[in-house]
Design brief:
seven-stranded mixed sheet; homodimer; 330 residues; 2 domains; Quinone Oxidoreductase, Chain A, domain 1
């Protein structure tokens, strides 16, 4: 039996249990050129919610389809020359135990590392942090790097990589507990609770020399505050807009755009990690070396069981996770 | 006698006659290291209004001071080794017949060209269009370039330079008359009246292949529409935010920031022309050659008499000018 979660009811406002529907189907048969994959882990990401809002860098989700999501799995049957049973692969086949799909839609993972690393620092998440910060943000040693959703999957990596790059690192997160954790466990120089009063003032106090690179995972009030604290020729890495994903009606953009972008000569630049995949192998080597040397902590918030996926994704938007949220399936 | 306009009453909302106050003072005496300059022409620019809103790339204007503004003048007395009477200089000494100031605050103009060119295509205005489009926007032949306030000083230059760079050029302007003029006189491929209904749809129709470079002089609704029409990896050159200068309370930024910046991998980048002044001499040579060859029209909307400066600046925000607005003083 192939257990599945369907994307059933488009949310009006927040994600809810009714957004998803449990389904059981026969295990599919791979055709020529296809392989049968058994899901090992699912990656839960803010982008999953954004895909429900309309076309982005991919088509919008359609009600009735298996819920989309990035996953890691094991080939259990192959009708493709390139893959053999036992191979570990990644791809977007969504929230289900099994999928039959063309080998061309899968990426084989050959790097020797536990699945927790393959879903975390060595995954799309880790590469997003790596390329976004280093290639788009262009931090220099001594720069102040501010990152929002700093306790999240990408943010927790951005902060650690910025430290390795010799920067002063300040994060925003929801609640004092997470802020304390960022400073204590991940070496952030300071962390600001975005839910507390006086957000702009608190960030200003934590960044007395202004902000050189702002890695924006959230948009919204943190972006507005950051714009006013950017240094001349600062770089804003536009990675996500999570403050506006799980809402009925997205808010207008920050007042300061484009005014401050002009007067401070800022650069705001969006990116998608796949844009940098020609450099992927080297990035993975560096990330793995940092993990092996104990200089980069893999923070994975693992949930056990496919049946828990909807609850976990809802929890992500309530800020319940620390680091990468993933589901162990099989 | 030195006739002056003072910046008297900070506007709450729109510029008005009361914003300025006529004043007559003795002609100043240059001290050692200074020169006495007689104003020949004043440049009227949207930035003049932005300076009233607070600190930007320069300090905010202070009530009681002579109204600031870029000017071209002639040295009439010199106590500085570098300048002699008859020299043509430019600088920001504001709305007055005479000023005594240190030679270091002036730039001598040695390029042989009539004052209309020095205040237009060969001025800060022309260089802003040149560097903003070519250096920040990085247009490639065949790209579609959209420019807002296209009938204004910078916009009318951007459109012409984009044509010289082999691009398809679309402008927005206020009213069908200006739009017709852009197509007929300046060679725009299309122009859209931003005051008419259906702005986004009209721009989309004028840019069937999407927008590769948007040169943003205005912010506001044109920026919002442009964001949704940008092609992947498009560049938005943030030059001005004129839709938000002459208002009591600036509007929030476009809804699409940062969402579309992420998914389309856009780059929004602000600049100030002075950032590129190391390349100024070459830019002026190229601009002058284009004018001499008849490939670039110098559109200067000249007003006669210092006494008309406030009325002319107010008219600028009502969209009364075409091309560069300037005041002939002496």
């Amino acid at each position: 039996m192939n257990r599945q979660w369907l994307y059933a009811n488009p949310p009006r406002g927040k994600l809810a249990a009714e957004t998803f529907q449990w389904h059981e189907a026969p295990i599919p048969q791979p055709r020529d050129g296809e392989v049968l994959v058994r899901t090992r882990m699912l990656s839960l990401d803010p982008a999953n919610r954004a895909w429900m809002m309309g076309k982005t860098y991919r088509d919008a989700l359609e009600p009735g389809q298996v819920m989309s999501g990035f996953a890691i799995g094991e080939v259990v049957e192959s009708k493709s020359a390139g893959l053999t049973p036992g191979d570990i692969v990644e791809g977007d086949w969504g929230w289900q135990d099994y999928a039959a799909l063309p080998a061309a839609r899968l990426t084989q993972r050959t790097i020797a590392a536990p699945l927790e690393l393959l879903i975390g620092p060595l995954s799309v998440t880790g590469l997003t942090a790596y390329f976004g910060l280093l290639e788009v943000g262009q931090p220099k040693p001594g720069d102040t790097v501010l990152v929002s959703a700093a306790a999240g999957a990408v943010g927790s990596m951005v902060g650690q990589i910025a430290r390795l790059a010799g920067c002063r690192v300040v994060g925003t997160a929801g609640g004092q507990d997470k802020c304390d954790w960022l400073a204590r466990e991940l070496g952030f120089d300071a962390a600001v609770d975005y839910k507390a009063a006086g957000l702009r003032r608190a960030i200003a106090a934590a960044c007395p020399g202004g902000v050189d690179v702002y890695f924006d995972n959230t948009g919204g009030p943190v972006l507005e505050a950051a714009l006013s604290l950017m240094n001349l020729r600062g770089r804003i890495v536009c990675c996500g807009n999570v403050s506006q994903y799980d809402v009925e009606r997205p808010a207008p953009g920050p007042m300061a755009v484009p005014g401050l972008v002009v007067t401070k000569r800022l650069r705001m630049e969006g990116f998608i990690v796949m844009d940098f995949y020609d450099q992927r192998a080297e990035a993975e080597r560096r990330l793995k070396r940092w993990v092996d040397e104990g200089r980069l902590k893999a923070i994975v918030d693992m949930v056990d069981g496919l049946e828990k996926a909807p609850e976990a994704l809802i929890g992500l938007f309530e800020g319940r996770n620390r680091g990468k949220m993933a589901v162990r399936v099989g």
